[in-house]
Amino acid sequence: MAQCLVCKSTIEKGQYCDAHLIAKKNLEEKYKDWQTAFGKLSWKDYLTRMANNQDIPIGDWAREVADYLLKKEK
Amino acid sequence: MVNYLCISEKPTAAKRLATALDQQGKPKKLPNPRNLAKVPVYECRRNGDTIIVIPALGHLFSTVEDSSRGWHYPAFSYKWVPSYIANPKHGSRPFIAAFKKYGKDVDEVIVATDFDLEGEVIGASIAKFACDRQLTDVKRMKFSTLTKEDIVDSYENLQPTVDINLANAGFARHEIDWLYGINLTRALTLSIKHSTGRYKLVTTGRVQGPTLKFVADRERDIQTFVPIPRWVIDAKIILEGEEIPLEFNKKFVPTFAEAEKIVSDVLDKDGVVSKISSREFSQNPPLPFNLGSLQSEAYRYFGYSPSRTLRAAESLYLSALISYPRTSSQQFPGSINLKAILKDLTKNDLFKTRANKLLTIPKLKPTKGKKKDPAHPPIHPTGKKAPASLGGDANNIYKLITCRFLAIFGPPAVKKSLRLDIEVNKQIFFLRGMKVLKKGWLEYYAPFGKVDEIELPDLAKGDKVNISSIVHKQSYTQPPARYNPNSLLKKMEEEELGTKATRASIIDILYSRGYIEDDSINATDLGFAVIDTLEKNCPDIISVELTRNLEKEMESITTGDKRREIVLMESIKQLKKILESFYEKEKIIGVTLQEQVQNLKQRQRMLGLCPVCKQGDLIITRSIRTKKRFVGCTGYYKKLCSWSAPIPQAGYASPTKNTCKHCGFPMLTIRKKGKRPYTICPNWLNCSGTPKEVLDNYQNNKAEALESVIEDSEE
Predict the structure, then answer these.
(1) Range of the domain at A36
(2) Is residue A6 included in any domain, yes or no?
(3) How many CB atoms are closer than 10 A to CB B30?
(4) Which residues of B sit within 8 Å Cβ distance of A?
(5) Cβ–Cβ of B226/A62 closer than 8 Å?
């Protein structure tokens, strides 16, 4: 048994629970759209916006993943 | 001379039936012995015959397990018993006794309950179990309104038997719902008990599971949603001193660079009116109300939940003000005298003018939808004058139904949409206008269906306009909207889950079981835990397709295509398969379910990374010694960090997603019943953002001081 890196819940295998895994996939997929929209945007800047900008209507689970990945980057 | 016993569904309906059936309009209320004192029994005389009218109290008989094995699954043996045996609090005992007493002496039994699935089961079960009659010998009164005319007409044209197919379909539905509910609930609950030794009642049902899945799936989409940025061009012009907003040709601009270019193209430039166009179109009158569209419209105009609308509609039906509301029909049969109803409505001041105007139309033709219901017509007023005392929900719903009834006869409304294009340096902006040319049916539907007319400014092609401001504003794609009780009901209808009579109550059950919450429906942690576990281990329990197929099977009993016994056997076979696969994984399911509940509890306690040691997490926990609640670092268990702080003891504490702007600690919210929730920093003792008076008031380690100060500042 393992623990989800984000919420510490018990999982059978892997690094993320189902909810945070979907959220992570969504974050990665949408990064391209954000790069297109702004012309240039680093992964770190993207995560910073996602984790900290309260005006962005991102889902709570996706924000938790962004926050975790950002801390990991740092 | 014949003696009849007439079974009514409710006491209110029984009184109305008795008054209509008695030739003098004065039925005799028979004195009853003490054990039947609560049951109103009416005796009516008609054409030399005697009719005894007795009400039921909803279902007087229900299913219970026919076994003494205790709490186990699978449980497939059941029997029909009086409801007071299944539930000792059910007040059915005197009613059953009354039916037994009067039922044995009469020549004929007539079922006069509502003509639908539930009504047929109520009547058929009383005739069969209390009056000891064969269903083929039981007569049926079939009516769609409780007006005297309809009641007398249905009595004089008695159906030779009850609708046996409908009754069988109703019996089968009760039995199948009971089998699924009891077995699935026991399986879930016992899985936790057998694998962890803990008792936690987890309930589900045949339609409940798939409905909860809709909500959980939607919530998952919302919580994992990542938006895409986009820009809106916000431009204004000034005309006669008034600032008017313009719409840009594209609703959203996908890139920042494009948005910048548009603004720089337009900035400080004048615009020219390049085109003025208009389009006339007609809008047909709405369709007659069935239950679904009435519930939808009542939610739109009054914010009523589907079950609230149904309650109000049922009370109007029992007062004989409207027709039977549990209908899916959108087509009026030729047998209903619509002109007579309109004539009756002219006696009501509120509808007088409109009804009179409609009566001048030589050939009245109501609109007609696709949906048919052989049992009942669309919901319509009976024409009977509403009492002045009619108020609240019933009054609103009555007005809505009557206005809709008037509107379905109206001519189409004719509207004109206008568009004025303004070109600025090759960029196109526009203004929209709307005018109602002919009110048509809208006049009859008022105050509902109101259209806001928008006039265009007095400009002609080639006129110059000054762009007073232009900016781009960032926006984002939005997550899908949560279901509300009305949209969830519509979703169930689309997916063919449940029946028109049961859908609203299934949503209510999900609320009462704590699986969903709020008007903007959100799956609770418990709701998620159940769906997550079942999705992984026993998806059949929450399968929409399986449930829908079962609905179709039950429908086939109503149409006479399948026998009740066959459908029952097939559904038991299917349930057995589900339970076998469940049993194989019982241990895993039990452990997972318990873990999910534990994980969710853990999530509810976890605030975030400890800013002091940066290794452990801050959690809301309790002292083993004092049992008091505080926030501490999980690093304490590894002897890495000893940071901790007291927090208020009263109320429900949960993490927020925010960190304190003064010290960076993850914050928490305290919710207390009847009070506004407030957010605090767990580091409040050392945080520069804590008001001085909190620290001054802080005595004897009581963090409650935070509450009073925060409340004051909020006021």
Answers:
(1) 18-73
(2) no
(3) 15
(4) 220, 222-230, 254-257, 476, 478-479, 532, 595, 598-599, 602-603, 606, 609, 617, 657-658
(5) yes
Q: Alpha-carbon distance B707 to B678, whole Å?
A: 8
Query: Are both B669 and B625 inside the same structural domain?
Result: yes
Active site residue B324: yes
What's the pLDDT tens digit per position in B33-53? 888 888 999 999 999 999 999
B223 contacts A30? CB cut-off 8 A: no
Separation in Å, CA of A14 to nearest CA in chain B:
16
What is the pLDDT, as a whole number, of residue B704? 66
Can you tell me whether residue B235 is helix, strand or coil?
Answer: strand
Q: Is B250 exposed, middle or buried (0-12, 13-18, 19+ CB in 10 A)?
A: middle
Cβ separation of B227 and A58 shorter than 8 Å? yes
For residues B131 and B125, give the distance between their C-alpha atoms in angstroms, rounded to a whole number: 9
Does residue A31 register a pLDDT over 90?
yes
Residue B359 lies in a domain: yes
Same domain membership, residue B240 and residue B210: no
Q: Can you read off the two tokens belonging to residue B696?
A: 């001054």
The structure tokens listed for B610 are: 């400890």
Q: Which residue in chain B is spatially nearest to A27 when comparing CA positions?
A: B226
| Partners of B381 in beta bridges | B322
User: Phi, psi at residue A60, to the nearest 5°?
Assistant: -60, -40
Q: How high is the mean pLDDT of chain B?
A: 90
Rounded alpha-carbon distances, angstroms, from residue B569 to A1, B179, B284, B335, B563: 42, 12, 48, 40, 10
Q: Out of B155, B304, B317, B324, pick the active-site residue.
A: B324
Please check the confidence at residue B536 and state whether its pLDDT lies above 90: no
Count of CB atoms situated within 10 Å of the CB of B19: 18
Is residue B375 located within the same domain as residue B432? no
Indicate if the pLDDT at residue B383 is higher than 60. Answer: yes
Interface contact B223-A57, CB threshold 8 A: no
Sheet strand arrangement including B108-111: B28-29, B42-46, B49-55, B3-8, B108-111, B139-140
Half-sphere exposure of B498 (CA within 13 A, CB side): 22
Q: Identify whether A11 is part of a domain.
A: no
Q: Which domain holds residue B631?
A: 610-714
Q: Do B522 and B484 contact (CB within 8 A), yes or no?
A: no
pLDDT digits (tens, 9 = 90+) for B623-660: 888 888 899 998 898 888 999 998 888 888 888 878 88
A 10 A CB-CB count for B72 gives 12
Question: Are B583 and B625 found together in one domain?
Answer: no
| Ramachandran bin of B565, using left for φ above 0, alpha for ψ from -120 to 50, beta for the remaining angles | alpha
Sheet with B652-659, edge to edge strand ranges: B652-659, B666-671, B678-680
CATH, residue B424: 2.70.20.10
Q: Is the pLDDT of residue B715 over 50?
A: no
pLDDT at B394: 96
Mean pLDDT of B78-92: 90
B132 and B41, same structural domain? yes
Please tell me the distance from the alpha carbon of residue B83 to that of residue B174, in angstroms, as a whole number. Answer: 13
Of B228, B532, B657, the CB nearest to A37: B228
**Nearest CB to B255 within list A10, A36, A64:** A36
Given B476, B496, B523, which residue is the final one in a domain? B476
The answer to whether the Cβ–Cβ distance between B220 and A60 falls below 8 Å is no
pLDDT of B276 higher than 60: yes
Which residues make Cβ contacts (< 8 Å) with residue A4, sequence separation at least 6?
A: A10, A11, A15, A16, A17, A20
Report chain A's terminal Cα–Cα distance, integer Å: 28
Do B422 and B494 fall within a single domain? no
Q: Which of A17-31, B85-99, B395-409, B494-508 has the lowest mean pLDDT?
A: B494-508
pLDDT tens, residue by residue, B659-685: 888 898 999 888 776 677 788 899 988
| Domain CATH code at residue B319 | 1.10.290.10
